[in-house]
Amino acid sequence: MSLDGVYDDNNPFALILAGKIPSIKLYEDAHTLAFLDIQPQSRGHSLVISKWSRARNILEIEDEALAQVMASVKKVANATRRALAPDGIHIAQFNGAPAGQTVFHLHVHVVPRWEGGPLGFSAHAQGNVADAAALTALADEIRAQF
Ligand code: 5GP
Question: Is the whole-model pTM more than 0.90?
Fold first, then answer.
């Protein structure tokens, strides 16, 4: 799928928002939702989405929705830092399949990084699916820091 296209109501994040598939939530407000990535690039890797925008990518998103998402990204990054003490935090966002996008509901990745750890992001969404119990315990640690 390219930069142009129609919003798919059955994309995984639409299904999470509709309560049709589970997610391990970190943070939620009236406009945004943050949850742990099921194929994490690092411990604590999470995603932040708009609850109401049907933008597939940053080229389409309403300014208001983008501002709401980025305000939540900041909150999630700070809570993740307090919980996990990373040395850095990688904020990433992909637009179009050739750029690495695999889910077409705009989302921002919040990826804690530690000194000496991997830097690349090219193989994201291809790693092992994380253990659900481990992710749930990790989410408790981060949620305690909001
Ligand atoms: P993209 O490649 O579109 O930038 O990133 C999509 C991200 O969503 C990937 O990191 C992938 O692991 C994650 N992902 C895909 N499907 C699901 C899902 O059903 N639940 C959760 N929590 N993450 C998902």
Answer: yes
